[in-house]
Amino acid sequence: MTASLARTPCTVVTGFLGAGKTTMIRHILENAGGRRLALIVNEFGDVGIDGEILKGCGVEACPEENIIELANGCLCCTVADDFVPALDKILAMEPKVDHIIIETSGLALPKPLVQAFQWPSVKSRVTVDGVVAVVDGPALAAGKVASDMDALAAQRAADSTLDHDDPVEEVFEDQVACADLVILSKSDLMNADAAGKAKSLIDEHLSRAVKVVPTAQGRVDPSVLLGLGLAVEDDIENRKTHHDDELDHEHDDFDSFIVELPNVTDADQLAGRISAAAESENVLRMKGFIQIEGKPMRLLVQAVGPRVNHYYDRAWTSADDRRSRLVVIGLRGLDRAKVERILLG
User: Fold this and answer.
1) What is the dihedral of CA 207, 211, 217, 219, to 10 degrees?
2) What is the spatial distance between Cα 267 and Cα 303, in angstroms, rounded to a whole number?
3) Which tens digits make up the pLDDT trace of 93-114?
4) Does the model's pTM come out above 0.70?
């Protein structure tokens, strides 16, 4: 049956910051095999970096108008306010989409989102094809759930709507407990012993027969992820998590703001200033798009603490806002004036 005659399948992709969700999803969009896809990206802050990276794919299977960014908080905590309107918009598109991919924020709990698919207004139109958890292999092999725990704190900091303030290990366990498929990312960075250790830690939290698929650089055949046909919303109550009996949670208060950078002429010098600002102040995370004078390409900058990664991701277009802006996220009491002074040189 076609998407117009049946409920549209949705794949929920969960996993911590840096696990490789966006890289994997971009690979899926570029290798859709004839499917017409739509994408909901859940990200914090006023500048949607992950969404822009995915929009930069420029593939016919998922045109830019089929990518919807939700930047108003953790999707599992704001599902009624944000998810349903986004779903309505996608289902009204012509031509009809064949499959919807939902990339949750790193700290989102899959279960509350999947439970929303039980609502009568939702269940009649869409179904959860499967839940996919992306896990950082090298980090897990080292005994951590993510490569940079401070970055997870920063992500929590950016979201004032977050209703769950739990140890990240519990969030990891909840993500894996709800998964129908686990993607063990960055397998090319692990030897056999490390890969075995990571797989063993995943297996400890799997109560069902769930496959663990090793991947490198996000390359996974879309047929492995899409078309599972599991109708997860009908089985979600059998997936036990830490939050099944909890009605409410508290959240911490962190600081975040946007810095505009005029007249950037050297990418490496900017990276040095970003690193210096993170070292000097309580900065946990910075990300943004930068216009380098004399360069036709857009510079993508992502920093976790003092570690800065930057590269030209695509050419600027006439529709782009070419202002150079960085989202800065840090601990409470972050001194904006000092950070701006360092970044502006």
Assistant:
1) -140
2) 13
3) 988 999 999 988 777 788 888 8
4) no
